[in-house]
Design a protein that fits this description.
Elements (H helix, E strand, L loop, with lengths): L15 H8 L3 H9 L1 H20 L2 H4 L5 H19 L5 H17 L3 H6 L1 H15 L4 H76 L5 H28 L6 E4 L1 H12 L8 E7 L6 E4 H18 L5 E10 L2 E8 L6 H4 L19 H11 L3 E7 L3 E9 L11
Parallel strand pairs: 2-4
Antiparallel strand pairs: 1-3, 4-5, 5-7, 6-7
The protein binds protoporphyrin IX containing FE.
The site of protoporphyrin IX containing FE has 20 residues, from helix 5, helix 6 and helix 7.
């Protein structure tokens, strides 16, 4: 068996010719199919409704055919398809079209056993009519039967290949996700180890500063020491935030103060280089009641939104407005940037896993997908509006605890 070299792109792999040779489709078969093409044309408009009546008789296939507009499109697509089987040029565009049909059915979520099984209807419907037409010429009948069977096997194998390719892609994406999760878990561990290593020397510096500041020293030196002390405090704070963020999330529901989560998420996100030139404003309504949430997860959503906003801003600077208030009984958080905006066609896809407009290696395409599932898990909603090139506004709505004494379920 010859294996495909690892990095060889799929497009230069032999396409249709390998299938044709393997199944044994020759010019004789092509001629046999063409011979009965007028008969097929005569009966195709009887065949297509028969085909879909059959599919409507089974629960697993009926579910795909409830929309009359889809059925209408299918009658036309099926007609073209059948006729094309009998006058096809078996070239790469034939192969590509079959692959496309395979992808369509895979995308629909149709199990391939129903797809492949439906080919029996072709043979069942057309063979008796072909035999009738070629009555008295058994050699011609067997030639056409053989060619017909071969072409259905050809189509089945291409569609199966398309299904298989899609399955492999889905598996590769899942693997990518697992690898990424693994890497994140390792980073979490490293960050807490690093924090420990940095923490001790920082604590010593703090102690030395405090010790010196408690003595009677020159005011000029005291001022400098105070500056050292406050910069060290800042490092301790940042490291603490990072450790908090990186540690494995504990899925504990508790009463959460949104202001605190927003502020700590912002501190984390501000560590990103893209944040340096962004002016941030945050207005949190003082009367905002607590919400019931898994704090780490909410922080993850906000960090993600802030980082996305920073990335969307021009290098020379931008503005990020964060607000949180009660609207129609729900905690409503808005994260509004004045960055490059998201085109309408992408706005529909931003929550799809692995959808990313960032350069390769810069985004996993999982951030908003994960954010959506976190917010939904909190019985909330997330919506984005965008205007090109004026920026994007994400609105998150979350239920609040009505009374401070509201119980948090276990
Ligand atoms: C011999 C097997 C089949 C053949 C040759 C076939 C052929 C086709 C073709 C040519 C299209 C249009 C392809 C495209 O737009 O990319 C299509 C679409 C579709 N097929 Fe099939 N099909 C088969 C089996 C089935 C089965 C078993 C079902 C189950 C109900 C099904 C449901 C659909 C649906 C729902 C669409 C999408 C229609 C639309 O939204 O426009 N097909 N099929």
């Amino acid at each position: 068996m010859r294996l495909r070299p690892k990095n060889k792109p799929e497009s230069i792999m032999p396409n249709i010719s390998a299938h044709l040779r393997y199944i044994g489709i020759s010019d004789i078969d092509v001629a046999a199919l063409r011979r009965v093409r007028p008969l097929i044309e005569q009966h195709v408009d009887e065949f297509t409704p028969y085909f879909y009546r059959h599919l409507q008789a089974f629960q697993d296939t009926r579910a795909f055919l409830t929309d009359p507009a889809v059925l209408q499109r299918l009658l036309i697509a099926q007609r073209h398809y059948v006729l094309n089987m009998f006058d096809a040029k078996f070239d790469d565009s034939y192969y590509d079209l079959r692959c496309q049909i395979g992808h369509t059915h895979f995308q629909l979520g149709l199990d391939f056993k129903w797809y492949i099984g439906a080919y029996a209807l072709y043979l069942d419907f057309f063979m008796p009519r072909i035999e009738d037409m070629l009555r008295g010429d058994p050699d011609a009948i067997s030639l056409v039967r053989s060619a017909f069977q071969k072409v259905t096997v050809l189509d089945m194998s291409i569609v199966l290949e398309a299904y298989h390719k899609r399955d492999k892609q889905a598996l590769a994406e899942t693997n990518r996700q697992v690898l990424h999760q693994e890497k994140l878990a390792t980073v979490g561990l490293l960050v807490s180890g690093l924090a420990h290593e940095i923490g001790n020397p920082l604590a010593s510096i703090q102690a030395i500063c405090d010790n010196l500041l408690n003595r009677d020293i020159d005011t000029h030196i005291a001022e400098k020491l105070n500056r050292v002390r406050s910069q060290v405090d800042r490092i301790v704070n940042i490291v603490g935030q990072l450790v908090n963020y990186a540690r494995p999330a504990s899925p504990i529901w508790k009463k959460v103060n949104l202001r605190r989560v927003l502020e700590s998420a912002l501190e984390i996100a501000r560590l990103a280089r893209s944040a340096k030139t962004v002016a941030v404003s945050m207005i949190v309504n003082a009367a905002l009641p607590p919400i019931e949430a898994i704090e780490d997860q909410l922080a993850q959503v906000f960090v993600n939104l802030f980082l996305n906003a920073f990335d969307a801003m021009p290098e020379e600077g931008g503005q990020l407005e964060i607000s949180a208030a009660i609207e129609t009984g729900l905690a409503t958080i808005r994260v509004k940037d004045n960055g490059c905006g998201i085109p309408a066609e992408n706005l529909k896809k931003i929550y799809e896993p692995f959808f990313s407009t960032k350069d390769v290696g810069k985004g996993t395409g999982l951030g908003l997908h994960v954010s959506l599932s976190i917010i939904q898990n909190h019985s909330g909603s997330i919506d984005a509006t965008s205007a090109l090139p004026c920026g994007t506004c994400f609105t998150i709505k979350l239920p609040v605890l009505q009374k401070a004494s509201d119980e948090i379920p276990a």
